[in-house]
Automatic annotation (TrEMBL):
Superkingdom of origin organism: Bacteria
CDD domains xrefs: HTH_XRE
SMART domains to which the protein is assigned, alphabetical: HTH_XRE (SM00530)
Matching Pfam families: HTH_3 (PF01381)
Gene source species: Pedobacter ureilyticus
Protein name: Helix-turn-helix domain-containing protein
Start and end residues of each HTH cro/C1-type domain: 16-69
InterPro entries per UniProt: Cro/C1-type_HTH (IPR001387), Lambda_DNA-bd_dom_sf (IPR010982)
Length: 133
């Protein structure tokens, strides 16, 4: 009975950690965006409850809403993934073929360029900060 109580509780820190990992972001990158240390991010991800103001800042950096963090569940993500591919054959050949031919709904080249530009801007900011010291 005690386990049932634990699973129904929301652990916001774990949800933040999971979303951060799904976004391909490391703790130190999140820390840099928030202006805190990596250790502070680690402590934040271990926290069951998080203040709304802090949650808003984290959500903004992760590109989601605070509600999305509060309502996040691995099951929802797995449902989205499993509903993306449909196996119409009795064997797995169709599933494999359809996953290999998956066409995203966004332009991957534009996303790569956007990411490169953001990384470049981030590096320029770091250089400017180092020059200022």
């Amino acid at each position: 009975m005690e386990n049932a109580t634990k699973t129904t509780r929301t652990h916001l820190g774990r949800k933040i950690s999971r979303i951060r990992e799904l976004r391909g972001m490391k703790q130190d990158a999140l820390a840099a965006e928030l202006g805190i240390s990596q250790q502070a991010v680690s402590k934040l991800e271990q926290s069951e409850e998080i203040e709304d103001s802090t949650l808003e800042k984290v959500a903004k950096v992760l590109g989601v809403t605070s509600e999305a963090i509060k309502e996040y569940s691995d099951e929802a993500v797995f449902n989205i993934i499993s509903n993306t591919f449909h196996n119409t054959s009795s064997d797995n050949s169709t599933l494999i073929a359809s996953s290999l031919n998956y066409q995203p709904t966004f332009n991957t080249i534009e996303k790569i360029v956007e990411l490169y530009e953001r990384l470049l801007a981030s590096e320029r900011e770091k250089i400017e900060l180092l020059k200022g010291k």
